[in-house]
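Hey, can you fold this one?
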Amino acid sequence: MGKMLVIFKLYAEENGQLEGILEEAKALKSAEFKDAKREPIAFGLECLKVGFVLPDKIEGVLEKLEADLKAIPNVTEAEQAGMTLL
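Sure. Predicted structure:
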């Protein structure tokens, strides 16, 4: 079974909440956390780009991860930014 790397952009209600969101994302059980970085948006606002490794042949795993990310407190949006096979 192959694996894929999925990158999501997570947007917070306020910039000061990004660290808490990152800790929650690292603790998710639905995917293997790979890496994260802050990305500037505009006017001092930032989003969090997070990467996760998922199995590529299991149906519904990507939707489950997206739902879990959107359920993190203070996350206003979880947007898929990229995907590639490993």
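The mean pLDDT is 94. Let me know if you want another pass with a different chain boundary.
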